[in-house]
Amino acid sequence: MEFAFYVHHHGSGHLMRCLAIASALKNCHITFLGSGLEAQKSLIPNSIDLIFLPMDTPNEQDHDFLDQSLEGLHYAPLNVSGQLQRVNIITSFLASHPKLLFVVDVSVEIAMLSGLCGVPAIVIRQHGLRDDLPHQICYHNAVGLLAPFDVRMAGQVPAWINEKTFYTGGLSRFATSADQSDPNKRQVAVLIGSGGTSIDHEFLNHLSGQCPGWTFHVVGNSENSNPVHNLHFHGRWNDPRPILADCCIVIGNAGHNTVMECASLNKRFIAIAEERPFKEQEEKARIIGALSLAVHLSAAEILHVNWKEILENLLTSRPNWTGFIRSDAAERAADYLINTHRSIFKHD
User: Fold this and answer.
1) Strand partners, 105
2) Domain ranges of the chain
3) Is a pLDDT exceeding 70 seen at residue 224?
4) 11 confidence band (pLDDT: 50, 70, 90)
5) Residue of 38, 31, 68 lying closest to 55 (CA atoms)
6) Which of 65, 304, 305, 332 has the highest local Cβ count within 10 Å?
7) CA proximity to 321, closest of 165, 87, 110, 149
8) So what CATH class is 183-314?
9) Do 183-314 and 2-171+327-344 have the same topology in CATH?
10) What is the pTM of this model?
11) Burial of 141 (0-12, 13-18, 19+ CB in 10 A)
């Protein structure tokens, strides 16, 4: 069977999700298409074909660039050379791969392009307010929708979208485990993602100053220029589980990877919602906050709340993440894709 994944370049969640699902698609031919895949090449198995797409944003040679989108689309600028090149590459690829099922994670425009080429597309669902016209058209036209989370985290969506969606259950690279950390040690993990964050030096210094009795372990692309006794910078770790295991609380943004990893490790979680298109993180943080799985803060609040009080209050209870992560989520997604492929194409 032939599958292709469009992998969006913003943050790491899209690639990690696609890698997990692709690994469960046994004996299939798989291609990843995306911008920025070169930098992530070491994470991608050699068995997966890669097509590197140029960015669709204007460069200094695009003198006639017009920031104008077409009705029904989110982003379709005029006179951008990279945009024309990537469409040419994608359509050429689609034309040379019959009986292909295209998994789009995520882009309304790429899903629409797939439909225009007559190639069936599965669209990955994300959190956020997706009731705008482009998303509604995209969801209607897709042959199926796949949600890499538990249905309890779906939020309020129209019935027809729920009925069209296959919920895999929570997908995490970490196996589920009980939280064995010692709250008396007052250790906190602070996760800095790659998609843009308000968790910066100003915030970290503010946090450590408000909570001198706590120790903060910072994981991600950040360096400490002014050493502080209770701030420890670990840099970027491909597998931060050893650090997370010793921490009784995790502070991070409400990106998909971070939420799923906290769920799999049953961690007390403070979800800082960054500004994202369609209020994606804000909606996700609101949902897990309402389910008593996390404390929800907006990025605008983090310098104006009592962190010592928040941390101490968190120690008085434990979240119940049971069932939000499924160990077979990737296999369930793969089975769904294979069954969809069989329903669309004739197989010998």
Assistant:
1) 7
2) 2-171+327-344, 183-314
3) no
4) confident
5) 38
6) 332
7) 149
8) alpha beta
9) yes
10) 0.93
11) middle
Phi, psi of 74 (to 5 degrees): -85, -40
Q: How far apart are CA 334 and CA 199, in angstroms?
A: 35
The helix or strand, by DSSP H or E, that contains position 333, with its residue range, turns out to be helix 329-344
Helix (H, G, I), strand (E, B) or coil at 244: helix
Q: Cα separation of 160 and 169, whole Å?
A: 19
What length does the chain have?
A: 348
| Segment 249-302, tens digit of pLDDT | 999 999 999 999 999 999 999 999 999 999 999 999 999 999 999 999 999 999
Residue that the structure tokens 């080429």 belong to: 117
> How many CB atoms are located within 10 Å of the residue 72 CB?
14
Amino acid code (one letter) for 146: L
- DSSP, collapsed to helix, strand or coil, labels residue 39 as helix
CA neighbor of 72 nearest in space, from 108, 32, 22, 29? 108
- What lies within 8 Å, CB to CB, of 60 at 6+ separation is none
Tokens describing residue 212: 């001198």
3-class state of residue 9 by DSSP: coil
Nearest to 51 by CA among 42, 38, 68: 38
- What CA–CA distance (Å, rounded) separates 264 from 243? 15
Calpha distance 58→60 (Å, rounded): 7
pLDDT band, residue 347 (cuts 50/70/90): confident
- Kindly calculate the radius of gyration of the chain based on its CA atoms and give it in whole angstroms: 21
CB atoms within 10 A of CB 85: 14
As a whole number of angstroms, the distance between CA 200 and CA 231 comes to: 13
Give the span between the Cα atoms of 250 and 141, in whole angstroms. Answer: 39
Retrieve residue 229's tokens: 């006794």
| CA-based nearest residue to 97, from 176, 5, 187 | 5
**2-171+327-344 adopts what CATH topology?**
Rossmann fold (3.40.50)
Q: Tell me which H or E stretch contains 251.
A: strand 249-253
